[in-house]
Amino acid sequence: MAFCIKNLMPLVTCSSVDSGHMLRAAELADKSAGYTAPHPNAGCVIARGSKVVAEGFLYGQGTRAAEIKAVEQAKELAKGSTAYVNLEPGDCHGDDSSVNALIQAGVSKVVVGLRHPLKHFRGKAIKALRDARIEVNVLGEDLQNRNIQEALRACQLVNAPLLYREACRIPFSVLKYAMTLDGKIAASTGHAAWVSSKTSRKRVFEARSRSDAIVVGGNTVRCDNPRLTTRREGGHLPARIVMSRSLKLPEDANLWDISAGHTIVVTQHGANRTFQQRLARKGVEVVEFDMLTPKAVMEYCYDRGFLCVLWECGGSLSAPAIESAVIHKVIAFIAPKIIGGVTAPGPVGDLGMVEMTQALNLSDVSFEQIGPDMLISGYLHPIPDLMPIIPAMEASAPELMLSASDGPNIISFYKAWNAYGAFSNFSPHPIKMISKRGDYVTWKSVEHYYQAQKFEGVQDFLAQECIERIKSAESPEEAARIGRTLERQRPELVRDKWESVKIDVMYRALKCKFSMYPHLSSLLVSTAGSILVEASPHDLFWGGGQEGEGLNHLGRLLMRIRAELLEDDSGSSRINLSTRSSIV
């Protein structure tokens, strides 16, 4: 019998049935892409032999886990069944509900596609399931043979952004361009509308909706005046990032209209201060760098929590991006057109290569006909295989604390799937708050409640409609988008004195959250002695900012609640909601 060197457990043959169910789990995991912010993609299939009895997928960060949805759908059929998950459970730090759902449902076996790439999740769920005497098989570790290769690859592809981000410490970046058959992205005059077909452009809109941000250079803004939207109602809106050292940009551009999406202009320190001020008055965010490079911008996007970035720039920017190794994948639409022109631009500028042997080769290349065009895609850098560095047992919690010699202990939190993500307003923890009528109202997350309170009590149809839309929004990201959009477009609809009461609104929501969930209060108390910092590099009110210049009000409120929990004589983290939670 063959043995796995890593954990000395006997290998199990993977059947075509196992492979088929895992392929389906990966397919389910991809269903949320484009409707909420990019996040780890999770799907779950519960089966009895070849028969599927239930399915579920994670719609978005802060929504109910795939495993919970599948178990609830399976009901009594879950007992003695096998659950197939493309990614080891772990959606929010401090939340074990996915694992508990599988255990309580009585599943007899769990097949895992990939161990979780994030260290604070890696191996934790697998160990918990095995401790509960549930058989756990991991593709490539416990299950080996040719049947798993396709399924394992599907699991890697659906979470490629997460794998790249964890291995490279920058977001997964995709370079997209459309060119003619003779390799031109525009005519010699710069005219580029349109190189590819309408069918291909629909695919581009889909790629945008799957991304956290879209990057273009100053030349693209000047020549094409793009909107960089997804061209559809609802769904995720990626940030638009413009890279320009000089800030010699048009006074009026579609990207300065922030009602269509958030725009960030990244530039060299001190560039065109007057224009920076004009952009700021329009609501455009400006970020200065000492040295503006693709690598520096991607490191900033990593700190900002971005998972996936789409580059739609010209050759003068794509070349340095490729040279600095921040581009991981290329998707190229080739139109059956010839335009010629010695000075007509190509998709990639000078890379300094003088021989064909120096050319960069793509791996995992795929070909697809899109209308009259041909789509060619492939990876410049192979998808990271984290398996060799993953121990058989779960890794310990990440080293988040600074040493005493470095000053006070600091714990940073931001995205719900990062370490200490349960402290985020986007974590999957519904809260119950008392309404003005005196009854309890359930909100899907703290973010849902906070966004709705901006318009509470405003006697206007749009404001009341917005509250209902926020309340029914499936994910916190969607709730935030709805609330922020109306606040930006119709500031007169925001309730009176909102700026003076919003901290108290947030405090009451957080107080409710940490009183309703004992494991959250325990996690919060466990940080005693440490400074909590909401690591948003752009929100200087609730977050700590990029250089620590932010006010960090969210971190301050959590430390205030932590102190109150520690002062509780009974040691209980439960607080009477009827006296401590109310509308302000």
Automatic annotation (TrEMBL):
Cross-referenced CDD domains: NADAR, Riboflavin_deaminase-reductase
GO biological process: riboflavin biosynthetic process
Domain CMP/dCMP-type deaminase intervals: 16-137
Record GO terms (molecular function): 5-amino-6-(5-phosphoribosylamino)uracil reductase activity; diaminohydroxyphosphoribosylaminopyrimidine deaminase activity; NADP binding
Root EC class: oxidoreductase
InterPro entries in UniProt: CMP_dCMP_dom, Cytidine_deaminase-like, DHFR-like_dom_sf, Eubact_RibD, NADAR, RibD_C, RibDG_C, Riboflavin_Biosynth_HTPR
Pfam family, one: dCMP_cyt_deam_1
Functional pathway: Cofactor biosynthesis; riboflavin biosynthesis; 5-amino-6-(D-ribitylamino)uracil from GTP: step 3/4
EC number: 1.1.1.193
Transmembrane segments: none
Record keywords: Multifunctional enzyme, NADP, Oxidoreductase
Protein name (Swiss-Prot/TrEMBL): 5-amino-6-(5-phosphoribosylamino)uracil reductase
Organism of provenance: Cupressus gigantea
